[in-house]
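Page 47, continued from p. 46.
Same chain as before, 113 aa.
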Amino acid sequence: MSKIKCERIASDMIRIISNILANESRDELLKTVTITGCTVSNDLGYAKVYFTSTSNLTNEQMEKELKEASGYIRHELAEKIDIRHTPELQFVYDESIAYGNRIEELIKEINEK
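Result:
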């Protein structure tokens, strides 16, 4: 499958999964999740969904919660996205925001000295 089509599907998945978590989920813990990115395999068999969360749980606990909810999320996604086969979802905590915050803190410390 072309790279452009995979990127389009990944973009649609980000939008739809974000909507499912924010508006359709009954679990308050899932409402704290923000989807930051998605990559889809060429055969559309698997999708890595990157997320961050404002909850107090550790990254591993949030990944576990999302893994448990992935069946529900995938089912809802299948109803809303126009592709033949809905990919298996793998949720991965996005470290880039924490990394960016750490860099900002270091720059601030350097400027104060």
